[in-house]
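agent> fetching stored inputs for the flavin-adenine dinucleotide docking request
agent> found them:
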Amino acid sequence: MRLRDVVAGANASMYYRTDFRRIKAVYYPQTERDAVEAIAKAREMGYDVTPKGAGSGLSGACTGGNRDRVIITTLRMNRVLSISPDHTYADVQPGATPDEINAVLAPSTMRFHVTPSSRDVATVGGMLSTDSGGNDAWLHGTMRDNTLRAKILTYDGKQIEVGREGVRCEDTSLEDDLNRKALTLNDIADAHGLLGFVTELRLALKPIGDETVMAGLVECTDISELGSVVQDIISAKIPVTYGETVIYAHPDIRGSLNPPLLVLEFPEAHLRDLQSITRLRMLTREELAELKDIRLKLAKRTPKRGLQISLFEDYGFYGHNLSRLQERVERIDSYLREHSFEPLAKYGHAPTKWYMGDNTQANGIIMHSNEIKQPRQSSSDVFETAMGLVRLCEELGVTPKPEHKWIYSDYAKLARIRELREVIGGGFNSFILDPDCGAVLSTMIQ
Ligand SMILES: Cc1cc2nc3c(=O)[nH]c(=O)nc-3n(C[C@H](O)[C@H](O)[C@H](O)COP(=O)(O)OP(=O)(O)OC[C@H]3O[C@@H](n4cnc5c(N)ncnc54)[C@H](O)[C@@H]3O)c2cc1C
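agent> prediction call returned; pasting tokens
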């Protein structure tokens, strides 16, 4: 494992420039005991800890900012510790990836069902900390829905077991205090490591679906129609097993795609329900595989001129925003163009599910967005435009999926984390709570 690879990780965020002199130590624990020792070393040296999984998070949180800090990576804590006799849950270390866990489960018919596109690298510790979900989150939920309990370490080395109902801890006074605050897994989910270092997770396993599925393509006349179709599928609660949209693709990268479109895989029993909502062109298995591949590669395509960048990454359109999708997307695009960015690609999971900072559920479209940056645009231009987008989304009522820029704009979650850190303590990723967090991140854009 090369040090540079651990520090940068699979960083696909725009915060890529790191001052390596400010990283005071990097630890690679293999066990919980090693993690306790690593945290104790950081505490003795007086440094904040950056917990790190694969580094595939897109918000910049996993970089630890550019302050003096110690990185503790879970890349060597990747074992499946045990599987329950009835195969309904598995206890795993935080550095295991969904692909690794499902490879261990392969001889059985049970699987771990949170599979983000980054499932080959993203760790379950990082995924819980960002409340990750795959393109079947509509059916299987996000990480919090599939985690039964998590063990976390505090900066002063205490082990806390957090479940759906509350907390257990050897320090009974801390346990009482945290239960009075009603700390549950909902708080740990998408806390970006601010509440402690996750050392073990109990993950729910579910059977592989054995129903016959079919696939179809909805080619919409405009973006509003696409929003309405997604809204109708959500209202009808159709258990779509795979749902992806391509809302826009720049002529440089469009190829044979004809957006806006919606690719759906669904149980055969729901064909009529879908046909009563929209016109569906049936797809063969090969055509579906090809469209899935195009969708995955869309994020990697480059424009003929300028650089590809993702200023905001994820837009969560739900509720009344689905019926006003065209107008919302146009407002965002005109904002981008006013700031000299050109839209490159907009695509994403739909119908899907995510949680807001106050733990309420949202159902709709998670739209990923990539833009073209001109060479003359400086790091501060980029950062200010990104923060302007955060403000525009607040005004439009479009929520970032919690993973991405929420940490700088989801005031309900931030307030709750501050409240809990008064009891549990800090010591992890504290830069996120600093007033100059944005200024620091803006220096990390290349
Ligand atoms: C190509 C690509 C595709 C993606 N697709 C999806 C997708 O489909 N769905 C989706 O939800 N996301 C997706 N993501 C985002 C990303 O993969 C997820 O956010 C993932 O959950 C992060 O896991 P990680 O191990 O890389 O965590 P990191 O990026 O290393 O860390 C993320 C956060 O968790 C904290 N953290 C990590 N480990 C621990 C721990 N043990 N204890 C406490 N805190 C910890 C970090 O400090 C940081 O704040 C994608 C990213 C890429 C690059």
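agent> quick read of the result: The chain has three domains: 3-75+422-442, 80-207, 213-407.
agent> awaiting further instructions
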